[in-house]
């Protein structure tokens, strides 16, 4: 199934819109939507790289975040498979015009990790829901708990562009071959290690945390990990990159509420939920510390939450420390 997904990803990328008359509800439509997302990722990845060349030469034009947002919107509209879109960069959802509408509600952060110049590890995060209502798209179509996603994934514009995704039965990773400009399946059905020794949290905020979070982190650090190694810290400051490392190497990524972000900083709908979907599909766990992220129904499209995500055993330990003795 995956190899066929892979073949279709690049076969369908160049599909003419005349092919869009195929039946609109099934897997074919989801594949078409994902193929359009793959085009957005290629296009933004290329813009990210060109920006590094033009930076400082005075030839930069539009800000990268605007380019990324417009590229994602265009690709999703022209896929003719989406009905309502939520972007980190738009205050309100975009309702797709009826002549371009499909059946999927898409939530995305088109350029995540941008707040860390000049050492950005930028990428994109997305989640796809099936439209709940039968008729015209409504806000409820995106206000769904993450467990109801039919697909989710992320891209990372690092040394090479990668696209990791899940359609609800495992996680598969593709790497962009620059010679072919095609995504090649490089990580089939990956599983996150059951435990790890790397923890990832911005400890610079420790004086802003509630005392119980300070206590939790200091206890967690001193617990020997199940793999027997001393715990060690890695923090890139770009959630998608920190979660990518966690997925491949094991360990845990945490972002707790603090004085500046009383509910947590990370956005539920298009950051935490899609990455929680990926991590769970790979055998890990994703929580706020108190409850499963994928069970939370958003109350607004830009809700923020706490995030504790990664290897199953490590997240369980943090939850136990957080909840205290029962
Ligand atoms: P952004 O939407 O402004 O980019 O913020 C989200 C990012 C995450 O990718 C990252 O995990 C976090 O902010 C880092 O925040 P901090 O600098 O507070 O540690």
Automatic annotation (TrEMBL):
The lineage of its organism: Eukaryota, Rhodophyta, Bangiophyceae, Galdieriales, Galdieriaceae. The chain holds residues 18 to 343 of 388 of the full protein. This is fructose-bisphosphatase. Its cofactor is Mg(2+). GO terms for cellular component: cytosol. Its EC number is 3.1.3.11. Keywords: Carbohydrate metabolism, Hydrolase, Magnesium, Metal-binding. The keyword NAD does not apply. GO terms for biological process: fructose 1,6-bisphosphate metabolic process; fructose 6-phosphate metabolic process; fructose metabolic process; gluconeogenesis; sucrose biosynthetic process. Residues 193-322 form the Fructose-1-6-bisphosphatase class 1 C-terminal domain.
């Amino acid at each position: 199934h995956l190899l066929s997904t892979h073949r279709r990803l690049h076969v369908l990328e160049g599909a003419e819109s005349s092919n869009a008359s195929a039946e609109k509800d099934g897997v074919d439509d989801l594949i078409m939507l994902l193929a359009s997302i793959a085009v957005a990722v290629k296009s933004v990845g290329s813009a990210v790289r060109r920006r590094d060349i033009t930076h400082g030469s005075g030839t930069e034009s539009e800000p990268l975040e605007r380019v990324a947002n417009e590229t994602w919107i265009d690709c999703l509209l022209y896929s003719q498979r989406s009905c309502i879109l939520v972007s980190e960069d738009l205050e309100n959802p975009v309702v797709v015009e009826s002549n371009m509408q499909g059946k999927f509600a898409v939530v995305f952060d088109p350029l995540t990790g941008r707040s860390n110049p000049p050492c950005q590890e930028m990428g994109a995060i997305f989640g796809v829901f099936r439209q709940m209502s039968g008729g015209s798209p409504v806000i409820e179509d995106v206000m769904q708990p993450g467990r109801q996603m039919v697909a989710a994934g992320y891209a990372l514009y690092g040394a090479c562009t990668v696209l990791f995704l899940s359609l609800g039965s495992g996680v598969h990773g593709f790497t962009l071959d620059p010679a072919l400009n095609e995504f090649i399946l490089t990580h089939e059905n990956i599983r996150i290690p059951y435990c790890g020794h790397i923890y990832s949290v911005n400890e610079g905020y420790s004086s802003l945390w509630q005392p119980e979070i300070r206590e939790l982190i200091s206890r967690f650090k001193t617990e020997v990990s199940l793999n027997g190694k001393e715990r060690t810290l890695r923090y890139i400051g770009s959630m998608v990159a920190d979660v990518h490392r966690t997925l491949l190497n094991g360990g845990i990524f945490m972002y707790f509420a603090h004085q500046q972000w009383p509910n947590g900083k990370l956005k539920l709908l298009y950051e935490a939920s899609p990455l929680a979907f990926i991590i769970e599909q790979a055998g890990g766990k994703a929580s706020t510390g108190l409850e499963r992220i994928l069970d939370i129904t958003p109350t607004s499209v830009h809700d923020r939450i706490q995030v504790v995500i990664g290897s199953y055993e490590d997240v369980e330990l943090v939850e136990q420390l957080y909840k205290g003795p029962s």
